[in-house]
Design goal:
Order of helices and strands: HEEHEEEHEHHHHHH
Strand order of the largest sheet: 3-5-4-6
Number of domains: 1
Radius of gyration: 17 Å
Helix content: 40-55%
C-alpha cells in the first residue's frame, strides 16, 4: 500500500472515528479573525477508549495511562498493551509539548486501529509493544522540502510499519477536521507572503502543532484530498 492509498484510508478512518466521538472534542480558539479548532487530547482519549469499550473491543476494566518516559533518541513514543487490562502510552520525555500532543494523538489512533482491525492483546500473557520512531518525523520533514510527489514515503512504507504511518496520518486528520480546511488554507497562505503578517510559528502556536506537520498537511495531504 503506497502513501496515497494510506492517506485515503486515513481520511476514511478518521471520519469514522470523528462520527463516533462527536465534535465537542474541539475547543474553539480565536485567531486572526478565525475560529480554529484545538483538539482536547484528554477528552479525545476518554472518548476513543470509551468507544472501544462500548463496542466490546476493550474490556470495561481496561485502564489507559499517558506518561512521558525517557526514551532513546530514535523513539518518539511507545504503546504497551499489558496483560492486566492496562494500556500505557509513553511519549518521549524529550519532546516539546506540541510534538508530545501529536505523538499521543497518533498513539490513540494506533490503539483504535489495532483493536478495530484485530485484538492485539489476544488474551495472551505477554506485553505487546508498539513504537513510533523518529524516522517518521524525519521522513515527513525531508519530504516537505525535497519531494514533489510521494516517492520517498512510498519507499519507506511496508507491511510492518503500515499502521505507524496510517495512525500518523489519522492523527493529523483528527487535529485538522475537514469543516475547517478552508480557514486553515487562508491562514497558511498568509505565512507565505511577506505582507501576510503571520509566520508559520504563529500558526503552529495557535494550532499547538509542530511546523513540519502543518507544512505536510498543507503541501501534501490537502492537495491530494481536494482532487
Amino acid at each position: 500500500m503506497d502513501a496515497k492509498q494510506l492517506l485515503t484510508v486515513a481520511l476514511s478512518k478518521s471520519q469514522e472515528l470523528s462520527k463516533k466521538i462527536g465534535t465537542d472534542i474541539y475547543q474553539s480558539i480565536s485567531f486572526q479573525g478565525f475560529k480554529i479548532p484545538e483538539l482536547n487530547i484528554e477528552v479525545f482519549e476518554r472518548r476513543a477508549i470509551g468507544i472501544l469499550k462500548s463496542e466490546n473491543k476493550l474490556s470495561e476494566r481496561t485502564v489507559v495511562s499517558v506518561q512521558p518516559f525517557p526514551l532513546n533518541d530514535e523513539i518518539l513514543g511507545i504503546v504497551l498493551y499489558l496483560n492486566n487490562n492496562r494500556i500505557d502510552i509513553h511519549p518521549s520525555a524529550n519532546l516539546n509539548k506540541w510534538k508530545e500532543r501529536l505523538v499521543v494523538c497518533k498513539e490513540l489512533c494506533q490503539i483504535y486501529l489495532d483493536f478495530t482491525e484485530s485484538n492485539p492483546a489476544d488474551g495472551s500473557n505477554h506485553v505487546l509493544f508498539r513504537e513510533i520512531r523518529k524516522q517518521i518525523f524525519e521522513l515527513i520533514t525531508l519530504h516537505n522540502e525535497t519531494a514533489a510527489h510521494f516517492d520517498q514515503l512510498d519507499l519507506a512504507i511496508d507491511d510492518k510499519n503500515r499502521n505507524e504511518f496510517l495512525s500518523f496520518f489519522m492523527a493529523i486528520n483528527m487535529i485538522f477536521p475537514p469543516e475547517r480546511w478552508s480557514d486553515f488554507k487562508i491562514l497558511y497562505e498568509k505565512t507565505t507572503r511577506a505582507d501576510g503578517g503571520l509566520t508559520l510559528y504563529d500558526m503552529a502556536y495557535a494550532y499547538q502543532m509542530p511546523r513540519f506537520a502543518l507544512k505536510f498537511f498543507r503541501k501534501r495531504m490537502l492537495p491530494y484530498y481536494e482532487k
